[in-house]
Amino acid sequence: MDRMGAEMAREHGGMDRTESSAFALGDDGADLMVESARRLAIPEELLALRELDVHYEDEFQTLWTYMRPEGRPSFTPAMLADFEAWQDLIGRGFGDGKVPLRYLVLGSRAPGVFCFGGDLKLFKQLIESRDRDGLVHYGHRCCAILHRNIQTLGIPMLTIGLVEGAALGGGFEALLSFDYIVAERGATFGLPEIMFGLFPGMGAHALLSRKLGSAMAERLITSNRTYTAEEMYDLGLVHQLAENGDGLEACRDFIRKAERRHAGLVNARKAMKISWNLELDELNRITELWADAALQLREQDLKVMSRLVSAQVKLADAA
Q1: How many Cβ atoms are within 10 Å of 154's Cβ, its own excluded?
Q2: Largest interatomic CA distance in the chain
Q3: 160 touches 178 (CB < 8 A)
Q4: Which of 169, 225, 272, 310 counts the most CB atoms within 10 A of its CB?
C-alpha cells in the first residue's frame, strides 16, 4: 500500500517523480499526486523492517507502527536494532521540508501483548557469564531509544502508544516515553522486576517520579502488582480508554480531536519536558546501577526469572 505510487509510476512507463508531478489532473488528481509523491519520499527501508510494520496515512499525516516480534514479544537485540533504524529513518525522511509528520503511533501485532519488556533470557545469560559490559550496552541502547522518543526525534509531532494487551517491565517503560497513551480496557500494566530481586532500569524511575511523584513511583515499581487500564487512567498515565477491540478506532478519534489544537499540544508537551530536565546521562546512570544490581542476583532469583520467561512464552503461544 505504501509503495502504491511507485507501482503506478512503473505501470505508466517508469516516469520519475518530476515527470509525474507535471500531469494536470484537476484538484482530486493533484491531491493524489501529492499523496503519491509523499509515499515515494518515504525511505523504502522504513517499510521493510523485519520486526516493525510501518504504514503512513496521509489524512492526518500519521505514521502507524506495529511491533511484529519473531518469538517472545520482548525487546530482543534484533527488535532494538529495528527501533534504532526506525528512528534514524524517520529522522531522515520526515519533518520540515520532507514528508510531513504530525502523529507517530506505536502498537503491537502480538495477540494480547503490547510488550513483555526486556529480554530476560538474554539477561540471565549475561548475568551467569558475569558480563557487566553486555548488560550496560543493552541498557544504554534502550535508554538512547527512549530518550530520542521523548524528544520526538526533533520533529514537531505528537507520539501515541496504542495498548491492546499486556505492557510489562520495559514495555511499560517504553510507553512512558510517549506523549499520550490510548489503551483498551482489557490492557494491563506492571513492573514485575522486583519479584526476582531487580528493578526496572530503563526509564521507570526517571519518568514515573516526574509524572506521579517519587512516592507513587516507588509504589508502582515495588508493588509487583498488575494494574488495569482504568487504574492507569485514574493516575493520569493513560489518556484515553477504549472498549476491547476498539483501540485502533479510539486512537483515530484521539488524533481527530487533537488535530485542531495540534500546535498547542505539541508545544505544551515541549514545555513539560523542559520542566522535567531529563538528560540521557541520568537514564544511563540508572541503567548502570541496574546492571550492577543484576550481577548481585542469587541463583533462586535467576530461577524465578526463568519461570517468568516460560510463563510469558506460554501466554504468548496461547494468544
Answers
A1: 11
A2: 71
A3: yes
A4: 169
- CATH number corresponding to 49-318: 3.90.226.10
Q: What is the distance between the alpha carbons of residues 200 and 221, in angstroms, rounded to a whole number?
A: 7
CA–CA separation, 3 and 40 (whole Å) = 7
Tens-digit pLDDT profile for residues 221-259: 999 999 999 999 999 999 999 999 999 999 999 999 999
pLDDT digits over 131-190, tens only? 999 999 999 999 999 999 999 999 999 999 999 999 999 999 999 999 999 999 999 999
Sign for the pseudo-dihedral over CA of 94, 97, 99, 101: positive
Domain boundaries, the chain: 1-41, 49-318
Sequence-ordered list of residues with C-beta below 8 angstroms from that of 54, at least 6 positions apart, any chain: 2, 46, 47, 63, 64, 65, 86
**Residue 71's pLDDT is what?**
84
85/200 Cα distance (integer angstroms): 24
pTM of this structure: 0.87
Q: How many CB atoms lie within 10 A of CB 41?
A: 14
Buried b (16+ CB within 10 A) or exposed e, 136-150: bebbbbbbbbbbbbb
Q: What angle do CA 257, 43, 101 make, to 5 degrees?
A: 20
Q: Give the Cα separation of 175 and 31 in Å (integer).
A: 35
Alpha carbon separation from 196 to 52, 112, 191, 215, 279 (Å, rounded): 30, 24, 11, 22, 29
Percent of the chain with pLDDT over 90: 82
- Cβ–Cβ < 8 Å for 312, 72: yes
Mean pLDDT, the chain, rounded, equals 89
